Amino acid sequence: MSKPDTLPVARLTEAEAAGELARLAGEIAAHDQAYYQLDAPTIADAEYDALRQRNEAIEARFPALKRPDSPSERIGAPVAEGFAKVRHGRPMLSLGNAFEAADVADFLARVRRFLKLAEEEIIDIVAEPKIDGLSAALRYEDGKLTLGATRGDGEEGEDITANLRTIAEIPGSLDGAPAVFEVRGEVFMPHAAFRALNAQQAEAGRQAYANPRNAAAGSLRQLDATITAGRQLSFRAYAWGETSELPATTHFGVLAALRQWGFRVQEETRLCRDLDEMLAFHAEMEAARSRMPYDIDGIVYKVDRLDWQQRLGAAGRSPRWAVAHKFAAEKARTRVKAIEIQVGRTGKLTPVARLEPVTVGGVVVTNATLHNQDYIADKDIRIGDTVLVQRAGDVIPQVLAVVPDQRPPGARPFVFPETCPECGSRAGREEGEVDWRCGGGLVCQAQAVERLRHFVSRDAFDIEGLGERQIRAFFEDGLVRQPADIFTLRERDAEAEAPLREKDGWGETSVANLFAAIEQRRRIGLDRLILALGIRHVGQGNARLLARTYGTLKNFLAAIEQSAPREGEAWQELLDIDGIGEAVAGALLDFFGEAHNAQAWRDLLAQLDVQPVAMPSVAGSAVAGKTLVFTGTLEQTTRQEAKARAEALGAKVSGSVSRKTDLVVAGPGAGSKLRKAEELNIEVISEDEWLALIAV
Ligand code: IVH
Fold first, then answer.
1. Which one of 47, 190, 322, 459 is most buried, by most CB atoms within 10 A?
2. What's the CA-to-centroid distance between 475 and ligand 1, angstroms?
3. pLDDT band at 34 (very low <50, low <70, confident <90, very high)
4. Is 52 exposed, middle or buried (0-12, 13-18, 19+ CB in 10 A)?
C-alpha cells in the first residue's frame, strides 16, 4: 500500500483534497478489513493512525468534501472498538457553565437557597483551574491501581488501564488510601510535550495534531500502550467516584489526602470565602493563562463541605454543588464563503456559514452556526463578508459581528429560502417562532434520515454498526425508510437477490455483527423508546420522566389515548408531571395524533419487546414508588431540595392532589391542596414527620 501522501494539507487545492479523501477512504477501509475481518493487519498502527489523522485534517479544512463513506464516520474504527466497555459505579458528571460574574453570583445564590442558608452563613468554595484535557477514572483496590477508564458518555467509558499506567503522574500504588478509592482527574498534554510531538509527527511525514487536547485524546486511545508511553501526558486529580471511606469532610481536605497518597493536585487551587474572592481568583488565573505550561479554559468552583455537596446532589447531568466559570472566548476574523441551510429531524432549517478556515484558540474553524433568519438579519451577515468568529469551549463557533468596512461591493442581504433545500416543500415560520420549518413532514427525506439517525443514536436505540453512514445508505437503497424496517432487515436480506454482505463496505462478519446488534435491541427500555421517537421537546430528561411516571408501555399508551381530547383526568395527570408543561404534552399528542406516525409506531411496536422502567428503587425507602405532593411553606428545607430528596428515594412528586396521590406533606399556609387531600382521605404529614420518614 502506498505511504500517506506528504503534500501538506494546508496547501491542497480542493480538487487534490477530494482525490486524497477518496484514496484515504479506500485505503483505510482495506486496512480495517485486514485488521478486523482477516485479523491480519497490513500496516503498523502508527502509520494507520497517520492515515486517519490526515483524513480528518483534510475534512476539517474542506468539510463540504466529506464523503458519505468517510472513515471518520465509520463505526468499527479501532479507536471505538479496541477497548472494553466499563460501567462507572457512580456516573461521571459534567459541569454547568457560568460566563459572567452574575452567573457566578447566581450559582452561590442557588446553593444558598437550596440549602436554606442564612445570608451571613459563609459558603466555602474551592476554586480550581479547569484544565482542558480529558477526564479519567482510576480505581484503586487495597492501594493498587486495578482499573483506569475514560469518561465515555458519563455512564459507560472505555477500559484504558494499560495506557493510563504509562503516565508517570498516575501512581501504580497509593500510600495510605482506603480499601476502595476511585480517583478522578484530568489527563492532558503540556505545551512543551505538544510541540515536541508535532515536530516528531512532521519529521515522520505525519499530520500535526490540531491542539493539545486532541493530541492527548489521540495518545490515550492508542491500542498499543507503548505509543501512549512515548507521549508525555500529565495528570491532575480533582474528584473521586466510588470510595469505601473518605479521608476528610471537605473537598479541600480530600485534595490534601490525594496529594499525600502520591497524586498531583493543581498547585493553584484556592479556598475562597465569598464571591469577591472567587472572582479575584478567576481574574488572576485568566491573566496568568498565557504563561501556564498547559491549557486551562476556566475556573471550577466547588462547594467545600461534603455534607452540603451530598444534599445538593445533581440536576440532570451536572452537580448543583459545582460550576465552571469559563474564560472569555477566543476570537478571530475570517470570510463567509457561503451560507447553507441544514434540515433537522423536526424540519427545522438552520443556516450555517461556511468559512474560510481560520484558527481560533488552536482549533481550525470552517463552519459557524447562524441560528436563524433573525440572527442573520440583525447582524446583517452577507456572503463575502469578513466576520468576527468566536469559539467558547466546545460550543459550536458563533459569528459575533460583521466587519463593515470589509464588505465586498455588490454583497446583497441574505434571502432566507421559503422552500426546503432538501425536498423543495414549502417552509413556514409560525407567528412568534424564530425558526423556519420544512413543511414536507414525512415526505422530506432529509428529515426522515435525521429521524432515523436519531432513532439509532447513543441515548436511544444505540445500535452498534448502524451509524449515520449506514442509515443514509440504507435509506437511499430503500432498505430502511422507517424504524420498523431496521428490525425486518435480516429477514428481508435472507431473501434478497443482492444481500448486504455482497455490498461495498460490508462482509460476512460485519453483516452478522449488525444483525446481532439489532436483535439485541428488540428488548428496549420504555425511556429509550420514547426518546427514540424524536418528538419535539422530548429529549432524554422528559423521556425518562414520562417512562418513570407511567412505568409500562401499556400505561403510557393508555395515558396518551385518554389525553387525546386535551382535557379530563389523564390530560391533567400528564400536565401534573413536574417538568412537563403544555408544550411537551401538546407535542406528544400531536405526534401520536398524526396518522402516519401512528402507523409507523404500531409497526415498530410489533417488532419490539418493551421493558418497563422502574423508579430508581432505593432499598429501605419508605416513599419508593409513591406519589407525593408538597404544599404550603417548608421551613427546614426548600421545596426544591425536598423534591430532589423525594425523587432520589424513588418517589414521584406531583404538583396537584388527586386520587393517585399517596401522601401530602403540608407546611403552614397550605390551602386548597390540603383541603382536597382531606376530602379524598389522603394521608397528610407535617415537614417534621416528612424529615423523620426519610431519615436513614
Ligand atoms: S469536576 C462533578 N474539576 O471539566 C464534577 N472537572 O464539564 C466533575 N475538568 O469532564 C468534574 N478541570 O474533564 C472538575 N478541576 C476540575 C476540572 C474538571 C477540568 C473537566 C473534566 C470534566 C469537565 C466538566
1. 322
2. 40
3. low
4. buried
| Lowest mean pLDDT, pick from 181-190, 402-411, 416-425, 576-585 | 576-585
Query: Which residues approach ligand 1 with their CB closer than 6 A?
Result: 93-95, 128, 130-131, 135, 151, 186, 238-239, 300, 319, 322, 324
- How do residues 121-155 score in pLDDT, each as one tens digit? 999 999 999 999 999 999 999 999 999 999 988 88
- Give the nearest ligand 1 atom to 134 CA: 13
Pocket-testing residue among 94, 153, 394, ligand 1, by greatest number of atoms within 8 A of Cβ: 94
More confident residue, 636 or 258: 258
Q: How far is the CA of 95 from the centre of ligand 1 (A)?
A: 7
**φ/ψ bin of 151: left (φ > 0), alpha (ψ from -120 to 50), beta (otherwise):** alpha
Homologous superfamily assigned to 330-413: Nucleic acid-binding proteins (2.40.50.140)
Q: Which atom, in ligand 1's list, is nearest to the CA of 133? A: 13
CATH superfamily ID and name for 525-611: 5' to 3' exonuclease, C-terminal subdomain (1.10.150.20)
Q: What's the whole-model pTM score?
A: 0.58
Write the CB contacts of 74 (distance below 8 Å, at least 6 apart in sequence): 29, 32, 467, 469
* CATH assignment, 444-521: 1.10.150.20
Selecting among 3, 85, 130, 673, the annotated active-site residue is 130
130 as an active site residue: the answer is yes
Give nearest CA residue, ligand 1 atom 17. 130
Residue type, 352: V
| CATH number for the domain whose boundaries are 4-73 | 1.10.287.610
> Rounded to the nearest whole angstrom, what is the distance from the C-alpha of residue 589 to the centroid of ligand 1?
39
Homologous superfamily of 97-326: DNA ligase/mRNA capping enzyme (3.30.470.30)
> DSSP letter string over 490-542?
HHHHHH-SS-GGGSTT--HHHHHHHHHHHHHTTEEEHHHHHHHT--TT--HHH
pLDDT tens profile 315-363: 888 999 999 999 887 788 999 999 999 999 889 999 999 999 887 766 7
